[in-house]
Amino acid sequence: MTIRLGDIAPDFEQDSSEGRIRFHEWLGDSWGILFSHPADFTPVCTTELGFTAKLKDEFAKRGVKAIALSVDPVDSHIKWIDDINETQNTAVNFPIIADADRKVSDLYDLIHPNANDTLTVRSLFVIDPNKKVRLTITYPASTGRNFHEILRVVDSLQLTDNYKVATPANWQDGEEVVIVPSLKDETEIAQRFPKGYRAVKPYLRLTPQPNK
């Protein structure tokens, strides 16, 4: 099964380091980040899970819940969490799904035979409160994920869901945004963007971020 942007994230029920998870119920009205790991006790994943734990307040500000996945069982996850807490100087504060039967991995197409036919790839999904998939990223096993980029994308998605704007290359929260090309009525533009805008080209109109 291939997950595409705009698809409803597949629901599932599976054990985790924090007990049985019914995914859609667990998400509730929150945004979610589901990210997979090739196996427990792998070095790059250890750093990723530790860093995710340290971002708890940043995720909370944005109404985001994090949940990880590995194909190893719960008892292995619990031992691994001890290692993560020790080596990364943190406390893992989100569940790790125990996907020993590969049920969730199959639902989310996380096992790629050309990479490894038994281990999940390093994939990540951003899921909105309507359970729609809004971002997918797959990294090679050798490269750790950039979680600052994940936060940046969540900021962009939440902003552009509420205003008729898009975010330009390398945009960071608080910087100028692009007025969407479909918005052409100048009266409406003035109402929506009282700080005005500058037209670099007729199709490229930049305005201060409206919620700042």
TrEMBL record:
Gene Ontology molecular function: peroxiredoxin activity
Domain Thioredoxin: start-end pairs: 3-159
Keywords (A to Z) from UniProt: Antioxidant, Oxidoreductase, Peroxidase, Redox-active center
GO biological processes: cell redox homeostasis
InterPro entries associated with the record: AhpC/TSA, Peroxiredoxin_AhpC-typ, Peroxiredoxin_C, PRX_1cys, Thioredoxin-like_sf, Thioredoxin_domain
Gene3D superfamilies for the chain: Antioxidant, Horf6, Chain A, domain2, Glutaredoxin
Active site: C45
Gene Ontology cellular component list: cytosol
CDD domains cross-referenced by the UniProt entry: PRX_1cys (cd03016)
PANTHER family: MCG48959-RELATED (PTHR43503), PEROXIREDOXIN-6 (PTHR43503:SF4)
Protein family membership: Belongs to the peroxiredoxin family. AhpC/Prx1 subfamily. Belongs to the peroxiredoxin family. Prx6 subfamily.
This protein's name: 1-Cys peroxiredoxin
Naturally occurring in which organism (per UniProt): Ectopseudomonas toyotomiensis
